[in-house]
Structure formats: structure tokens, C-alpha cells
Amino acid sequence: MKTIAILAAALLAAAPLAAQDPVRTDTTAQPAVPDSVLRDTLGARARDQEPIQVDSAAPIIVDSANPAVTPPVAAPPVVDPAAPDAAAPDAAVPAIPPAEPAVPDSEVKDSVKPDSTDLPKADEPMDADMPAAEPDADVPAAGGGALPSGWSARGDETREISGVAFATMGDGFHVTTGPAGIFYRAEDAVENNFHAEATLTQTKAPEHAEAYGLFFGGTGLESTGQKYTYFLVRGNGQFTIKQRNADIVNTVVDWTPNAAVVQADAEGKATNTLTIDARGEQIVFGANGQTLHTMEVRPEQMNGVVGLRVNHNLDVHVADFDVDDQ
């Protein structure tokens, strides 16, 4: 009976404690995990997984109240702004539009408008294809074929002068040509230095500008092998110098305007005094007291007959024709 009472008293004493803490827990603090162990553990896990980029500039944050370590933060991927495809690697590549169809040549030609009215039209021939202008025909002079005493004449191709009138008029001569020709006297043959001069007047307007003047160095004038150098002017104020060798004509000075050459007036009239001076191996060509051109020649080119030349369909009066062999 005494034993039972002791057990009952013990049970009564233990009842309040059981009500307050029915489950006993261990509240003893766990020791902190060293940082080196934690890093080794994280490193092992990282080796087993795909690598992640870690910003080396981001510090590892440690909560002083909680020794657990915050894992490193992955840095965002770096994007090069100069590479548009890198910003959106999965973006769809835009399709290239199809090429425009070629425009037919006919449409291109129709759409191009020339800026100048000088350009030939499509149905017009180019200059190289255009026929040369037909020269005006020789008009035989009335009363042609006769010559003053001591004078000779010839045309460019033949010695036939039936279409040319050459006559004495006053102190000079008057020439009316159909075909072009030269007029000369045997007494006017010179060697080396000489001076030749003549005043020539175009008395009326020709159909187009034609020329007249002097020649020197004439040889073989009676044959087909004629040679001479001639100096001419025409009513538009231009001059030229050419050399004839049989049927071949070479241009020394092409048609050139010069203020010293008197141009024809409204009635087609013009008077020019022309000179040729030979000194040593130099020839000087002048008009109305002005030098137009100077050229070097061989002595044999100076030697020969000096005379007049009048181109076709002209009416020219010749005064003061003189050849001085010096």
C-alpha cells in the first residue's frame, strides 16, 4: 500500500512537465560549416553541371547572421551592338526580294530624250554616213581660151583653158574662171631669194567662198608632173598654204582666219595685196602689210616660176603684179 502511494505521487508530479513539453527536441546549436568546405562542395556540383558564367566583379555575399553563403550570380550574356545577328541569334533571316525584271532595250531608248537638237535622229545618218556636199559646177567664162602675149595657163588636171578668160585690162589683168587654174610667164622664173607681189580684187560674190592668190616654185608646169606651192585668201577673211605635186595636194596651213585679210562686202567685193618673200631657206607670206605665216623650205623648193592662181567661178582683177628676183 505504501509502494502504490509512492508511484501515484510520482505520476502526479510528472504530469505538468509532460503537458508543457510533450516532445523533447535537441536545441543544441549546430556547428557552422567552414567556408572552404562550402566552396569545395559548390565546385564539385558545378563540375557535374553545365558551366555558368560568373561575373568576377560580383562579390560573394555572406550573411553574418547566417553563415550560409549566397551562391554566385551569373553575369548576363555580352552582346556586341555591331553584330545585329548576335542580339537575336534565333531571329529569322529576312527573305531577299526577287530581282526586278530587265527593261527591254526598246523601252530604254524610248525613255531617253536627247538634250541637244544637234544630235542626229534615229532615222538620220551620222556624219560619216552622210554624202559629201556636191561642189558647184564650173561655169565656162565667155570669150575664154585666149591669153595675153607671153602668158601661159593650165588647169589642175589638164592644160585645157577654154573655159577661162584672161585678158589685159588697164594697167593689170582681169581673170574670169570656169575651172580653177594658174597663170604665169616664163620670165618670172627665179632662183633663191625673191619678192613677189600682187593686188587682187574679187569683183563680185561667188556662189560660195572661193580663193585667189600667188604661187611659187613652179616646175613641170607643161606636164602632168606639175609642182608648186600656193598661197591663197578668200572672201570670208581666211588664208591657206598648200603644195601640189602632180595630182597630190598637201596642206601646209589649213584655212585660217586672220584680221589682216580683207573680207568681202555686201556686194562680194574685196581687195587684198599679197606678198611672198624668200630669204635664204625661209619664206614669209603676207597680206596688206601684215605677216600671216613663215615657213622653212629647201632651196630647190624656192626655185621655179612665180605666178597667179585663181580658183573656179571667180571674177578677179589683178594689179601691180611684180616678181623681183634678188
C-alpha-based Rg, rounded? 60 Å
Regions with little confidence, pLDDT below 50 for 5+ residues: 16-25, 60-64, 108-133
How many beta-strand segments? 16
Strand order in space, largest sheet? 3-6-15-8-9-10-11
What is the highest CATH level, the class of the domain at 186-309 and 316-325? Mainly Beta
CA-CA gap between termini: 192 Å
What this model shows, in words?
With 326 residues, this protein is of the alpha+beta class. The chain has a domain at 186-309 and 316-325: Jelly Rolls (Sandwich). The chain is built from 5 helices and 16 strands. It has helices at 2-20, 35-48, 84-87, 105-111, 299-302, and strands at residues 62-63, 66-69, 151-155, 165-169, 172-176, 181-190, 194-202, 211-219, 227-234, 238-245, 248-257, 270-279, 282-287, 290-296, 304-310, 315-325. Strands 3-6-15-8-9-10-11 form a 7-stranded antiparallel beta sheet. It has a 7-stranded antiparallel beta sheet with strand order 4-5-16-7-12-13-14, with no helix packed on it. A hairpin with a 2-residue loop joins strand 10 (238-245) and strand 11. The protein starts with a helix and ends with a strand. 22% of the residues are buried. The model is unreliable at 16-25, 60-64 and 108-133 (pLDDT under 50).
